[in-house]
Specification:
By secondary structure, the chain is α+β, with helices and mostly antiparallel strands. The protein has one domain (about 1-115): Alpha-Beta Complex (Aspartate Aminotransferase, domain 1). Helix content is about 30%, strand content about 20%. It is built from four helices and six strands; from the N terminus they run H-E-E-E-E-H-E-H-E-H.
C-alpha cells in the first residue's frame, strides 16, 4: 500500500469502525466524488486491529458483486440495511502472499472508486 501514500491517501483512525481500526481516507482536497464510494466522510477502507485483520471497504457495485461471488468478501450488514453504501464489503484477511496480492488489488479498486476513476 506504499503506492497509495503518494496518491492523496491519508492513514488515520477510522471514524466508523472499532477502536484501533486504521482507515484509508482521501485528503480533503482530493474529494469531489460520488458519496457512495465512501463509508463516512472521506473514508473508503479500514483495517481492523488484531486478531481480526479483516478489511472493510467500498467497491463499485459490479466489483463488490464479483468479490462476493469469488468468496473474497461479503456485503457489510449495514450495507444490507441501507445505512452505508451498497458497495460496502467485508474482505477476509489474507493468509498468504497470493491472497495479500488479491486483497491489495481490491484496496486499489476501492481507491480508484473513491478517486472517481472507476464506477
Amino acid at each position: 500500500m506504499a503506492e497509495l501514500a503518494a496518491l492523496d491517501v491519508v492513514w488515520t483512525e477510522s471514524m466508523i469502525s472499532v477502536p484501533g481500526a486504521e482507515a484509508l481516507t482521501l485528503s480533503r482536497g482530493a474529494v469531489a466524488r460520488d458519496p457512495d464510494a465512501f463509508m463516512i466522510g472521506t473514508e473508503f477502507a479500514h483495517l481492523h486491529p488484531a486478531p481480526d485483520h479483516s478489511l472493510h471497504m467500498v467497491l463499485p457495485p459490479k466489483a463488490a458483486r464479483a468479490a462476493i461471488e469469488a468468496g473474497w468478501a461479503e456485503q457489510h450488514p449495514m450495507a444490507r440495511l441501507g445505512v452505508v453504501s451498497p458497495g460496502a464489503v467485508m474482505v477476509y484477511a489474507p493468509r498468504d502472499a497470493r491472497e495479500a496480492d488479491i486483497v491489495a488489488k481490491l484496496v486499489a479498486t476501492s481507491y480508484a472508486y473513491a478517486g472517481g476513476t472507476l464506477s
